[in-house]
Fold this sequence. Notes:
The protein is an alpha+beta fold. Helix content is 40%, strand content 25%. Helix 6 packs across helix 9 (238-256).
Amino acid sequence: MWISKTPLRVSFLGGGTDYPSYFNKHPGAVLGGTIDKYVYTQALRLAAIAPQRFRITYRTTESVNCVDEIRHPVIRESLREYGWAEPLNIATMSDLPGGTGLGSSSSFTVGFINLLHRMRGTELTRYELARHAIHMEQEILGENVGVQDQIHAAFGGLSRYEFSGSSFSIEPVRMSTSRRDLINRSLVLVYSGQDRSASAVLEAQEKRTKSGANQDYLREMYALTRTGVSILEAEGSDRAALIAFAELLDHGWKLKRQLSHAVSNSTIDDLYIAGKSMGAWGGKLLGAGGGGFVLFIGEQEMASALGARFGRNNVITVRLTEAGSRVREFR
């Protein structure tokens, strides 16, 4: 049996500039990092005498005899793309639910592509893995998605990624251990109670971006990624740096809200205001908008206050991690 373990991510700054509609004309960049929450995919070769050639378990269960009958789009198209015909039992699980702004869909795509290649004895480079996943989601499936989620999931770590045309570059953030540990003690996710489809939320935003209406906002959001790296890497007080970084996120969130009317709503706005009143220095809604998790950075006791207000099951502390998608074989 083979298992892939692929991290989810938090995007701090620059989200929206990682879409081809923008970075094919203007440079884009995001600053974000992978967290200690994962998507797991396992696969086991079935015996030739199995009654069905493919058994797939996710929110539902599929048992089919050919690839074309598979309903799960990423699994079906990945098996087609890489010419996989051997019988397989596939199952996927996640530490946190999808549709919550943590890049879970792309993490699954990255993990599944990684898994198929490793099962055949091929280890893709991190760059190749990201490229394969981007091609799968944008070109084969035709999904309205950016490119940051696939790159985060493939590479892992806290980095600034820059996009221009068909290329991207990586700038890992250089921090002291003490500053990294302070960040890890200060990150809290609060679930808004609303799931959403990223593609649906992005439709209005993409129209505005293509028309040029979002250009000034996106240009400033791009610039904030450089400022964010400078703050995190600057010498001096770790606490002062983190407060300044959180305040920058607050500014970035205000800009993001201008990209489309679908980005926020009264529930999210009220949640964010409450978080600021409970010790958050700053934060933002994760993902495309419309629901999912709100990220806060603040005092350690903030998590308890948020749990008392919104329910302990809806408040999750997370830590940044270094590794991208990994695959392991169990014999």
